Amino acid sequence: LSQNSDIVIIGCGAGGGTAAQFARKTDRKSSITVFEKGKYPQYSKCGLPYTISGTIPKMNDLIEFSEEWFKNANINLSLGTTVEKINVDNRIVFAKKGNVVIEKSFGSLIICSGAKPSYPPIRNLEQDGRLVNGVHVVRTIDDAETISSHIKRGGNTTIVGAGLIGLEMADSLHRKGMNVTVVEALPQILLNTLDEDMSKIVHAAVSEKVVILTNHLASKIETKNGKISQVFIKNAETGEEQSINTNLLILATGTKPEISLAKNTGCKIGKTGGIIVDEKSETSVKNIYAAGDCTEYLDFVTKKPIPIGLGSIAVRQAIAAGINAAGGDYKLPEGVLQTRTSEFFGLEIAAVGPATDLLEGMSVVSGKFNGSSLPDYFPGGKPISLKVTVDEKTGRILSAQAVGDNAAQRINTFACAVLGGIVVETFRKLETAYAPPIAPTLDVVTLVCDIVSKKLNRKR
Ligand SMILES: Cc1cc2nc3c(=O)[nH]c(=O)nc-3n(C[C@H](O)[C@H](O)[C@H](O)COP(=O)(O)OP(=O)(O)OC[C@H]3O[C@@H](n4cnc5c(N)ncnc54)[C@H](O)[C@@H]3O)c2cc1C
Q: Were both Cys, which of 55, 197, 227, 385 would link to 50 (CB 3.0–4.6 Å)?
């Protein structure tokens, strides 16, 4: 075995870039090499919908850490370089930059290869192994540039998938003057983020701006002059089919972990298809770490494995991977809270913990409160709906969901509760800050807990 202390990182997305930085902070001397197959250094994928809408003026504004930055940190970043093979026994990675083969030995390896898009079974989606002209995913700066080149004021766009990215794209393309139809195979939008009752509030608001077809599947594409012209939409209940004229089709139907390199390393792959990692972000193979969308980790509440698909989690796992790969000692909590948020059509949504349906096998009590962000007498208050779910036996707060003003900050408060195992009885007495232009005396955070506490007492 190689005894060297060199650190090699695969991928320079949110995970890889962060891992490199924290490895360098931990060890000022070791050689750190990052191989990235794309042409850009670390940039924010999360900002892509906002470059398309024009809110972020230039694609390059998304770059968070430049090549120069990596150079100054004495991190050897090799762009346009694809790692093709990992030899675990001899501790060497083989990469290719153009026609040049690079061999690099490592003491520790960090795999941050991200995810690849997963496509629904739509007929004629691909031609010669590539998506038809006018059909796109939103994964890279190149994708965003091509999508932007297809935008036509007054044109029609269809978005397949009503998750967070689908709805962010609906907002962006609506802002650009396109007629937007969102097609969702499931009976509700935002399934992984909100329960059905909470998602209805969002559905009603978003439907005022764009067409949303739940329980509908995109089934077939037709092209004209080599470009998409129509998409066929099938009603999942009745089987009825209709066609929509479409200049641009966006696939926002989720991802699969990119694990092709990890497969032959002996790193264990979990039930959800991601590389299994522990609290140190270490895989089942010693000194091989992994972070981000290529991994699976435990949900904090259910302790069941979940695929990672959030930049917020990728960065935290990568901090652990970088520090530990460089000889430090850093552990994450045993599971992720999945604190998540977004904003579209002026509506903020946020959640922490699993959707209630996923708490199967647990006896839970939920309560909801629809209030205002400000005291009733103060002008400018905005609606805010909060839902909280607790364990029936202990009263421990398991999850919360919010739609409306300052949803994310309110959910961050509940993230503390979930992480700390706080019971709803305690949280109903939480002393929240009050001043008329900022928040009411009793914030919705405490009022919803009051409702759940009372429900819980009645049940007991
Ligand atoms: C449109 C959009 C909006 C999003 N919004 C949010 C949000 O608001 N909040 C949030 O928390 N998350 C959001 N996410 C998710 C977030 O971007 C991802 O969770 C995060 O990027 C994962 O980081 P990663 O490093 O695991 O993967 P990536 O950022 O995908 O990076 C993986 C990198 O590895 C490289 N790579 C892969 N294989 C190889 C190889 N063999 N050799 C060399 N390089 C390789 C790839 O080119 C890529 O650059 C969003 C994602 C998208 C697409």
A: 55
Q: Are 432 and 445 in contact (CB under 8 A)?
A: yes
Q: Cβ distance 139 to 45 under 8 Å?
A: yes
Q: According to the model, what pLDDT value does residue 3 have?
A: 52
CA distances from 131 to 180, 224, 231, 259 (A): 20, 14, 14, 22
pLDDT for res 2: 40
Ligand 1 site-directed mutation target among 52, 106, 112, most atoms within 8 Å of CB:
112
- How remote is the CA of residue 49 from the centroid of ligand 1, in Å? 14
53 lines ligand 1 (CB under 6 A): no
Does the pTM exceed 0.85? Answer: yes
Asked if residues 109 and 267 have their Cβ atoms less than 8 Å apart, the reply is no
**Angle at Cα 172 formed by Cα 168 and Cα 178, nearest 5°?**
125
117 lines ligand 1 (CB under 6 A): no
The closest of 186, 179, 219 to 357, measured between CA atoms, is 186
CA of residue 347 to ligand 1 center, whole Å: 25
Exposure of 456 in the CB half-sphere (CA atoms within 13 A): 25
3-state secondary structure of 83: strand
Question: What integer pLDDT is reported at residue 263 of this predicted model?
Answer: 87
pLDDT of residue 236: 95
Burial of residue 259 (number of CB atoms within 10 Å: 0-12, 13-18, 19+): buried
Cβ neighbours of 225 (radius 10 Å): 6
- Enumerate the β-bridge partners of residue 127: 130
Q: What is the mean pLDDT of the chain?
A: 96
Cα–Cα distance, 424 to 446 (Å, whole number): 9
What is the rounded (10 degree) CA torsion for 415, 421, 426, 432?
-20
CA distance 8 to 32: 6
User: Coil, strand, or helix at residue 288?
Assistant: strand
Which parts of the chain sit beneath pLDDT 70? 1-4
